[in-house]
Amino acid sequence: MATAYLEHTLSAAGTNGNKKATFSAWMKRATNGVEHVFYTVRQDSSNFFRFRFDSDKINVTSNTSGTNYYATTDAVYRDPSAFYHVVVAYDTTQGTAANRIRIYVNGVEQSKSASNYPSQDATLFMIASGQPQRVGQESGGGYFDGIMTHVHYTEGYAYAATDFGETDSTSGIWKPKTAPSVTYGTNGFFLKFENSGAMGTDSSGNSNTFTVSGTLTQNVDTPSNNFCTFNGVNPYSGTLSNGNLKMSQASYDYNVQGTLGMESGKYYWEYKIDGLYGEFGVCEQGKAGQSDPQANIGFYFLYNNGNTTGYIWNNATAGSQSSTITIPAFASGMIINLAYDADNKALYIGQNGTWLNSGDPTSGASKTGALITNLYPRFGGTIVPFCGHGTSNTTANYEANFGQGYFGTTAVASAGTAPSEGGIFEYDCPTGYQSLCTKGINSF
Question: Which CATH class is domain 239-442?
């Protein structure tokens, strides 16, 4: 949603619409240290209502005729691999000041580092006829960069986090209630984003349909099945975008790792390349985010500089190229296929659906055609996907598909055979392999 948002014009306020309200959403941030607005109503600079990540803390503000009421969490939220369930409840009728603005994250009420609570029974600027509600942006900026799903707004009703989420009895993980028993009020809404052709559809029963501004991409990455992305916390230079699935790299040594690790099981993913000099493979989690992967232990990848020689780096014991292989030269638009067999410590790499070295990712212990074998962590941690750039001569963009079904904002052209636990790829996922997602990891 980095350059998109949804908007709906408010009708007349319902009962207690400016004294009680609840916002609930599941969010996966792509970038840290910046403002991300996830809901706002704004009339002007003196009258607005806003929920946001203010840098890395959650801030809730109601500016009413120039009087600013707010609360900001003490905690910061910087994990780009996780979905956060954020619930904000306003209720100015409460006798205790701190209960008039309550903030929950993953079912737990948060302490606040700063606050100015409204007086009891104060009427706030939350609902104003003719003014726009916006999800994912505030007029003038603050685009939400990441993934958002199951967005609820209840007008005139203050709810707790347990009305929208619950603890899974098996895993102990906080999960969504897909059909919560709540009352939405006149201007309330429930955005599921389940209709790719009408992303602003309201499922609350109110028919408060939102208009989409910009391009919203429907994603299989959800709280119930969390997919790998590039890790925005520790890339070595470069620029991440499109929900941390696109890496723009302009110089030698730029590299980035994935957010989810592979300790056991078998996993498949793809990269679409725009430019030459790419490095594609895996690395040890503690080794990414540093310069010169070609010279450092802990990086395992195929490199090509636009000719028909593929350079294989198997940096298990020394930072040096281990072998070469004749391959089709990397070219713009080419899709690189990767299959990592964590059980047998083998990495297979292909181009446009054809495995190099006559590789057979389904060969198990025989490791037929694997480009790199005996691949296991030597520095602790786990093995994660790796993408790098090997020159300072050109700029390149690398778009990852860990099963989300897109390269950038473009859906795969013709989906191949999908893994059993979710995911959409351009080419066939090898038999027995999964997307790098929580359901895929848990299947092994």
Answer: mainly beta
Domain ranges of the chain: 5-213, 239-442
Q: For residue 72, give both structure tokens.
A: 């900001």
Q: Global pTM? A: 0.91
Using alpha carbons only, what angle is made at residue 280 by residues 273 and 441, rounded to the nearest 5 degrees?
A: 110
Contact call for residues 298 and 291 (beta carbons, < 8 A): no
Instruction: Give 299's strand partners.
Output: 283
CA-based angle 143:147:150, to the nearest 5? 110
Question: Considering Cα of 410, then 411, then 416, then 419, what sign does the dihedral take?
Answer: positive
pLDDT of residue 13: 63
| Strand partners for 64 | 67
**Residue 18 CB partners (closer than 8 Å, separation 6+):** 123, 124, 125, 126, 127
Please name which of 110, 9, 8 lies closest in space to residue 53, comparing C-alpha atoms.
Answer: 110
Supply angle C-alpha 184, 185, 187, rounded to 5. Answer: 95
Residue ranges, the chain, pLDDT below 70 = 1-2, 13-15, 288-289, 317-321
Instruction: Give phi and psi for 98, each to the nearest 5.
Output: -65, -20
d(CA 199, CA 211): 8
Burial readout 421-436 (b: 16 or more C-beta within 10 A, e: otherwise): bbbbbbbebbebbbbb
The CATH code belonging to domain 5-213 is 2.60.120.200
Q: How many CA atoms lie within 13 A of 76 on its CB side?
A: 11
Token digits of residue 169: 């009895």
Quick one: residue 286, left, alpha or beta (phi over 0 = left, psi -120 to 50 = alpha)? alpha
> CA-to-CA distance for 84 and 164, rounded, in angstroms?
13
Asked if the domains 5-213 and 239-442 are classified in one and the same CATH topology, the answer is yes
